[in-house]
Amino acid sequence: KYPESSWPAAFSTAYVSAVAQFGNMIEVRTGRKSQHLPIFVRMLDKFSSWGYENGLRSMVTTLLQFGMVGYPFVLPDMIGGNGYGNIPSRELYIRWLQVNAFMPALQISFVPWQYDQEVVDHALKMTELHAQYAP
Fold this sequence. Notes:
This protein is mainly alpha-helical. It is built from four helices and three strands. The chain has helices at residues 9-19, 59-68, 90-100, 117-133, and strands at residues 26-28, 39-42, 74-75. The radius of gyration is 17 Å and the shape is elongated. The protein starts with 8 loop residues before the first helix and ends with a helix.
C-alpha cells in the first residue's frame, strides 16, 4: 500500500490547510477533507446561460451538492456567469442577482451599471437582502 502522502489529493489538503492560516473566509477551488476550515470553496466557473448544463439553473443544485458533503461556505460563481464571449442579458443578470442574494457570498464580475439604473437599483436591493440574511 502506498502512503497517503504519495496520493496527489494530499497536496490539495495541505494547500488548503496552509492558506486557511491567512484568515477566515479565504477562497479556494480545491480541498480534500477541509470541511472543518473556515474557508470559501468556490464553484467552478458557470456559463452565462440559463441552462442546467452549468448555467444559472445549475446554481442551486451545485450549492446543495457542496452542502451535502459538508461545505457550508460556498462561493458561487460571479453574478452573471463567466461571460466568456458574451455579456449576460439583462434578465439573466437580474435573475442571477436574485439567486446569489440567498447564497453565502456575492461576487460581481459584470457591474450593474453596464445595464441601466433599474438594474443598479435592483442590485442594491439584492445586496441589502444578502447582508440581512447571509451568514
